[in-house]
């Protein structure tokens, strides 16, 4: 009997402390609270070389270092979001959420960075996606860098190890603010930069797969120094983009 009473007390406490145990109601959240879902460009878009898109660091990594991927696959097609985004927006809407966080593929907007010009087809794709979301009453949240960048940034600057990439990111951010800022009010510059620098420059698990002992056995890299250099350049890039947005677009 005592065990049964104790069990009932625990269930009652769980229902109070963990709302999901008894179900949630929107009325329990403050006005303006947004429910949402999130994705990243490389994970879902596919169409990795269509309509003028350039190679990204992940395109090259998955094709040349497939053993670094658990099942050896790549994102060439992924969820085919590039061709099926309207279906995906309908699915998002059917879930009843009111926000959607997605990332823009830098290589789809600027295949070669500042030197190659803006890819109009890439702009058109995200423009249509944002328009479809807004039409359904879904607030777009846009991430500019979710671990992917044009492969040319790796060859030209050594990725985030080169100071020159700061100006590239500032230009890329400005292109996006100018193209989509009339409808996008929520921007994220970098997704989890601390995690990215650790996986890419300490452990060598993510492109450009740089590391050194005792953290890993990469072909090149310095796990004691390079993560700080990369993080430094990302922080300065973030600061420049935020300054630009607040001054010219907000």
From TrEMBL:
Residues 1-23 form the signal peptide. GO terms for molecular function: beta-glucosidase activity. PROSITE patterns: GLYCOSYL_HYDROL_F1_2. One of its GO terms (biological process) is carbohydrate metabolic process. It holds the Pfam family Glyco_hydro_1. It catalyses: Hydrolysis of terminal, non-reducing beta-D-glucosyl residues with release of beta-D-glucose. Keywords: Disulfide bond, Glycoprotein, Hydrolase, Signal. Transmembrane segments: none annotated. Its EC number is 3.2.1.21. InterPro entries: GH, GH_1_N_CS, Glyco_hydro_1. It comes from the Eukaryota. PANTHER family: 4-HYDROXY-7-METHOXY-3-OXO-3,4-DIHYDRO-2H-1,4-BENZOXAZIN-2-YL GLUCOSIDEBETA-D-GLUCOSIDASE, GLYCOSYL HYDROLASE. Belongs to the glycosyl hydrolase 1 family. This is beta-glucosidase. It comes from Aegilops tauschii subsp. strangulata.
């Amino acid at each position: 009997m005592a065990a049964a009473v104790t069990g009932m007390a625990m269930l009652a406490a769980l229902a109070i402390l963990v709302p999901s145990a008894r179900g949630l109601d929107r009325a329990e959240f403050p006005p303006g609270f947004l429910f949402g879902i999130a994705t990243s460009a490389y994970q879902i878009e596919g169409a990795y070389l269509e309509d003028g898109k350039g190679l990204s660091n992940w395109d090259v990594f998955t094709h040349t270092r497939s053993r670094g991927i658990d099942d050896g696959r790549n994102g060439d097609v992924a969820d085919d979001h590039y061709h099926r985004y309207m279906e995906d927006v309908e699915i998002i809407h059917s879930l009843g959420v009111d926000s959607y966080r997605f990332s823009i593929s830098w290589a789809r907007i600027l295949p070669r960075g500042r030197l190659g010009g803006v890819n109009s087809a890439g702009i058109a794709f995200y423009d249509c996606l944002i328009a479809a979301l807004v039409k359904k009453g879904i607030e777009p949240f846009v991430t500019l860098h979710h671990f992917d960048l044009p492969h040319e940034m790796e060859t030209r600057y050594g990725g985030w190890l080169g100071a020159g990439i700061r100006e590239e990111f500032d230009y890329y951010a400005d292109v996006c603010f100018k193209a989509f800022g009339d409808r996008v009010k929520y921007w994220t510059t970098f997704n989890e930069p601390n995690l990215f620098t650790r996986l890419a420059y300490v452990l060598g698990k993510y492109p450009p797969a740089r590391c050194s002992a005792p953290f890993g056995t990469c072909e090149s890299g310095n796990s004691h120094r390079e993560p700080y250099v990369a993080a430094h350049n990302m922080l300065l890039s973030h600061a420049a983009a935020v300054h630009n947005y607040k001054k010219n677009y907000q």
